[in-house]
Design a protein that fits this description.
The chain has 234 residues and is α+β, with helices and mostly antiparallel strands. The chain is built from 10 helices and 4 strands, in the order E-H-E-H-H-E-E-H-H-H-H-H-H-H. Helix content is 53%, strand content 7%.
Amino acid sequence: MRYQLYYWTGIQGRGEFVRLALEDAGASYVDMARIEGDDVMQPFLDGRAAGARPFAPPFLKAGRQVIAQVANILHVLGPPLALVPKAESRRTHALQWQLTIADAVAEIHDNHHPLAGSLYYEEQRDAAIRRAEVFRRERLPRFLGYFEQALEAAGGRHALGRHSHVDLSLFQLVRGLEYAYPKAMRRQARRMPRLRALADRIEQRPNIAAYIASPRRIAFNTQGIFRHYPELDG
């Protein structure tokens, strides 16, 4: 099957979690907005295209099916891409991981847009500084501690005991945080040896290494989820 991925052009955001799974599995897919522009998404967002109406990108078209929400997309993609164990209990466990990662991503986004997504960062900078301080002190250690402990409980190398889309998402989360909060992540480094090792291993997987070296991988920037503003890093 040839998948169609819909996500904003030039932005390395939530769509990257889906893209990494497709790239790692060597799946055939088309990044639709990169070819036809962002307007290609509008019929789906307006409910004029066939299939379940997504609230926002990213969403994926798989045959006639339209699938939205990162955790849900990866839940559906896992079996055909061999990125999740076959047992339903293991798929449910993977979904639980992905939903927790999604919670972390939402909080990371809200650090630089604490008042409204419709306002520029500069219009809410003071509130962002206050929120990011709490995030660095309380929420970042809590999320990373949870993921580190859960990874240890699974054997230390893989979130599900074998390679899965969860490992790929943890890689993206770690690398995104290292970009956005380099100082804070250096302070957390000794507390997350397994997460750091997992991210390094994922980066060396052949398809991922080739993807990162290609123009398909958009560099982290101040247009996506993970944004580096020095004042938010303490």
